[in-house]
Amino acid sequence: MRYITSRFLFYFVAFLIAISFNFLLPRIMPGDPVDALFAGSAGQLDPSQMEAIRAMYGFSEGPLWSQYLQYVKSVFTGDLGPSVLMYPTDVTTVLGFTFPWTLFLIGLGVTTAIILGLILGTIAAYKRGNWFASLFPPMAAVLSSMPAVVTALLVFYIFGLQLQWFPMSYAADPSLEPGWTAEYLGSVAHHAVLPLLVIVLVSLAQWVMTMRNAMINVLGEDIITMAEAKGLSQTRIMLRYASRNAVLPVVTSVAMGLGFAVAGQIFIEIVFNYPGVGNTLLKAINARDYPLVQALLLLIVAFVLIGNFIADLTYLWLDPRLRK
């Protein structure tokens, strides 16, 4: 319990630091960012909303510490003000629409890459010397070393433009009414194939090489020698002894993988015009929608921190030594 409490406090403090940077950002900008925001809105914003946006930024009456507390309160209560890009829609409403699409892609893509990586990494380590163990890891490493945007453009060109097997934009057919119908869900799955393929290709090698290296280290330990001396089957040794011990370092790298996935997701969504956080962030930057940009950056930070915290809890479950 002490371990869980300490990790939770650590990530909570990290989130408060991120909030503090967001609070300081408009204050270190030259001029008044709120006035610049209204000047660049081309009449889209109602002047009566100026005070609401000032309050969202924390520009309220009183000393700096009072403004900071007001800003923190607005973050935790979800009162983030209106969006310039989608005025008069609130920023919270925009986040509620875009974040589920990003969570869907990252969750399914990274989970698929991790499962495939663990399986292929285990085989590559346990079957050293055969053609698969010699050929696949280097090929995967070369593929994943390419920037996410380059891989996305290649997949877009080959499977979208040339072969025309899959749609190249949107999360679903715009002509369909959103809902939990078979037709709409099938369209969502069809449109998600190419972005998911890019996520898997970009991140697969990380899990393959991490699991392979961890398995090679475990295979040289005494516990494997003892299991072989007992006459246990190779399959049982690989699954029950080697894999279980080798997966611990992999869990540690999951958190880092989530961070890279969020960063790469921005470019993937832009290439495929997917209505997630990354695509919305680019549009918000172009529109100088500071409230939406700040909220999206905070959301990305929160997602990475939550991923790290979940990885720590998983590590606690896998390693009994931390529970003592």
TrEMBL record:
<keyword id="KW-0472">Membrane</keyword>
<comment type="similarity">
    <text>Belongs to the binding-protein-dependent transport system permease family.</text>
</comment>
<feature type="transmembrane region" description="Helical">
    <location>
        <begin position="7"/>
        <end position="25"/>
    </location>
</feature>
<keyword id="KW-0812">Transmembrane</keyword>
<dbReference type="InterPro" id="IPR000515">
    <property type="entry name" value="MetI-like"/>
</dbReference>
<keyword id="KW-1133">Transmembrane helix</keyword>
<feature type="transmembrane region" description="Helical">
    <location>
        <begin position="292"/>
        <end position="318"/>
    </location>
</feature>
<dbReference type="InterPro" id="IPR035906">
    <property type="entry name" value="MetI-like_sf"/>
</dbReference>
<dbReference type="Pfam" id="PF00528">
    <property type="entry name" value="BPD_transp_1"/>
</dbReference>
<keyword id="KW-0813">Transport</keyword>
<feature type="transmembrane region" description="Helical">
    <location>
        <begin position="101"/>
        <end position="126"/>
    </location>
</feature>
<feature type="transmembrane region" description="Helical">
    <location>
        <begin position="188"/>
        <end position="209"/>
    </location>
</feature>
<feature type="transmembrane region" description="Helical">
    <location>
        <begin position="246"/>
        <end position="272"/>
    </location>
</feature>
<protein>
    <submittedName>
        <fullName>ABC transporter permease</fullName>
    </submittedName>
</protein>
<feature type="transmembrane region" description="Helical">
    <location>
        <begin position="138"/>
        <end position="159"/>
    </location>
</feature>
<feature type="domain" description="ABC transmembrane type-1">
    <location>
        <begin position="99"/>
        <end position="311"/>
    </location>
</feature>
